[in-house]
Write a structure and sequence with these properties.
The protein is α+β, with helices and mostly antiparallel strands. Helices cover 21% and strands 29% of the residues. It has two domains: 6-173, Aminotransferase class 4, branched-chain amino acid transferase, N-terminal domain (D-amino Acid Aminotransferase, Chain A, domain 1), CATH 3.30.470; 184-342, D-amino Acid Aminotransferase, Chain A, domain 2 (Alpha-Beta Barrel), CATH 3.20.10.10. The strands form three sheets. Strands 10, 11, 12, 13, 14, 15, 16, 17 and 18 form a nine-stranded mixed beta sheet that branches. Strands 3, 4, 5, 6, 7, 8, 9 and 19 form an eight-stranded antiparallel beta sheet that branches. It binds 2-OXO-4-methylpentanoic acid (COI). Belongs to the class-IV pyridoxal-phosphate-dependent aminotransferase family.
């Protein structure tokens, strides 16, 4: 279960800032709860202007007009990526350009100017370097980076904000499903949906997540780690897990829902498709009926937060189906390949990683 405690910088700051390599964090206990770090990056711009250059500022609460468009019209996007420390101590980002491109795609859909790929990647680098002492030691987790773009300008009538803010903050993180790292137990949600045809499911809009909170809370109360959402049009096909993308494996064929507007084009999803093809698995992006999930040999989730997490069981209409997990599983092999590249243990022949120090 993902805990929700918050640690403030004051609670974790070292006694002196004089070149100390690491913040005072119990690196062995990291989970996905928020630990506030020292600095964030902020850039503001008006609808007419291009992005103004941003600045690194101390991490603090932000001031918003009660009429800010993000608060009542939900004009906002977020991203998630990670910085990893290699064995030699140097710090790498994983495919930050892909997050920049996805933010640009979302910004177009939600009528906001977006930072260029160069500004986005530079902002992420600056924020990570400013918070360097919060990047966990090699093998202990990662510094999760949360870039956001949202309408901060005040407005009453329906329309895009006259001013937007691009903000990047970080938090050291460990496993998303702390306590269920080996395999998660999911249930299929029939009543609530994440996305609708013509809606914003295909971009990382802030509006995509809270609509399933009620279902998620109910599932967690029954002991499940997360929920699988079905398509809103027919209720026959799996779309996503509340927090990530989903893959199923049958024989040598890996399948994942096709990104036709209701599925988030995950960067981990895209990377796993490439790695699986390299291992000679057949990969299909298609509609996946619930029956195919129940007949699969393996199911696993992918996402920046969850990385690659095997699914141990899925419960649907009261019936529990179990799947292969553990060292013999394909998900194990794919996870090892991906995290090997992300943490510098395996050679990155694809140019996915970016050294920043
Ligand atoms: C991520 O994986 O980075 C996400 O944004 C998912 C979020 C629910 C933690």
């Amino acid at each position: 279960m993902a805990p929700s405690s918050i640690q403030s910088p004051a609670a974790t700051q070292p006694d002196s800032d004089g070149g100390e390599k690491y913040a005072k964090v119990n690196w062995d206990e990291l989970d996905f709860s928020l630990t506030c770090t020292d600095y964030m990056y902020v850039a503001r711009f008006s609808a007419e202007d291009k992005f103004s250059p941003g600045n690194i500022t101390p991490y603090r609460n932000i001031e918003l007009s009660p009429a800010a468009a993000v608060l009542h019209y939900g004009q906002g996007l977020f991203e998630g990526l990670k910085a990893y420390r290699r064995e030699d101590g140097r710090i790498m980002l994983f495919r930050p350009d892909q997050n920049a491109l996805r933010m640009q795609m979302g910004a177009e859909r939600m009528f906001m100017p977006a930072p260029s790929t160069e500004q986005f990647v530079d902002a992420v680098k600056q924020t990570v370097l400013a918070n360097k002492r919060w990047v966990p030691p090699h093998g202990k987790g990662s510094l999760y980076v949360r870039p956001m773009l949202f309408g901060t300008g005040a407005i009453l009538g329906l329309g895009p904000a006259p001013e937007c803010t691009f903000l990047v903050f970080t938090s050291p993180t460990g496993h998303y499903y702390k306590g269920s790292e080996k395999a998660v137990n999911l249930c299929i949600e029939k009543k609530f949906h994440r996305a609708t045809p013509g809606g914003t499911g295909g971009i990382k809009s802030i509006t995509n997540y809270s609509p399933v909170f009620e279902a998620l809370k109910g599932a967690k109360a029954k002991g499940f780690d997360d929920i699988i959402l079905l398509d809103a049009a027919t209720g026959k096909y799996i779309e996503e897990i509340a927090s990530c993308n989903i893959f199923i494996l049958k024989g040598d064929t890996l399948s994942t829902p096709e990104t036709l507007g209701t599925i988030l084009p995950g960067i981990t999803r895209k990377s796993i498709i490439e790695l699986a093809k390299e291992l000679n698995y057949k990969v299909e992006e298609r509609l996946i009926p619930v029956e195919d999930v129940l007949a699969a040999d393996e199911v696993f989730c992918t996402g920046t937060a969850v990385v690659v997490t095997p699914v141990g069981s899925i419960t649907y209409e009261g019936k529990r189906t179990e799947y292969r997990t553990g060292e013999g599983a394909v998900s194990h092999k794919l996870r090892a390949m991906l995290t090997g590249i992300q943490t510098g243990l395996l050679m990155d022949s694809k140019g996915w990683t970016v050294l920043i120090d």
